[in-house]
Each structure stands twice: as structure tokens, then as C-alpha cells.
């Protein structure tokens, strides 16, 4: 089970509006407010994922572009992407609230 519940607190931590520890504490408080104890007690643990770094996001963009390049190559189309284009793809597709998920749909 995954959720973006409390993601705004992690984003605030990334932006330096508070510490990442405070962001995690606020996130966990929100989890306990939102989910009933009966559900939380059935979970063995709650894992808070750290937001992706710029380098990690760029790797996601490269992977998605490689897949797109392979798809169009099957149709006889050659596609090469510059580093500048990869930067544009990342800046246009990335949404801190949703992580790397929108990158794939943007590339497609």
C-alpha cells in the first residue's frame, strides 16, 4: 500500500522550510490522524520514502527516453536526445507531489 499522504511536508523539508526530521514527524502525525488505529495496527511498519534527488530523477528521464527511442526505432525512426532536452523533459514533467510518476506519461 502506498500513499502521497503528507507529501507536502516532505516537499517543505526539501525546500528547506523545515528540517527533514520535522517533515517526517509532521507526516507521521498526519498518517495517524488520517488512518484508523485498527488499520495501522495491522501494518508491520510504515516506510517513509525520501524524495528523489535531481540525479535520480534524471536517471528516470533517461530510462523513459530509452524506452521511447526503442519503440520508435521499431518503426524505422531514429531518435537522439541531447542533455539539454533531457533537462527540459525533467523540468516540464516533474511534480514534487507525485514524484517521478508523471515523467513516463509526459514522455509518452
How would you describe this structure to a colleague?
- This protein has 108 residues and is an all-alpha fold.
- It has two domains: 51 residues, no CATH class; 54 residues, Orthogonal Bundle (Helicase, Ruva Protein, domain 3), CATH 1.10.8.60.
- Helix content is 60%, strand content 0%.
- The protein is elongated, with a radius of gyration of 18 Å.
- The mean pLDDT is 89.
Q: What's a quick, concise take on this entry?
A:
Residues 53-108 form the Clp ATPase C-terminal domain. By secondary structure, the chain is mostly helical. The chain has helices spanning 7-14, 20-34, 37-40, 54-73, 83-93, 101-107.
| Whole-number total of structural domains | 2
Count every helix, treating DSSP H or I runs of 4 or more residues as helices. 6
Residues in helix, %? 55-70%
Distance between the termini: 26 Å
CATH class of the largest domain: Mainly Alpha
Largest sheet data: none
What would you say the CATH architecture of the largest domain is? Orthogonal Bundle
Strand content: under 5%
Q: Which oligomeric state applies?
A: single chain
CATH topology of the largest domain, which one?
Helicase, Ruva Protein, domain 3
Q: State the shape.
A: elongated
Q: Can you tell me the residue ranges where pLDDT is under 50 for at least 5 consecutive residues?
A: none
- Give me the secondary-structure category: mainly alpha
Number of strands: 0
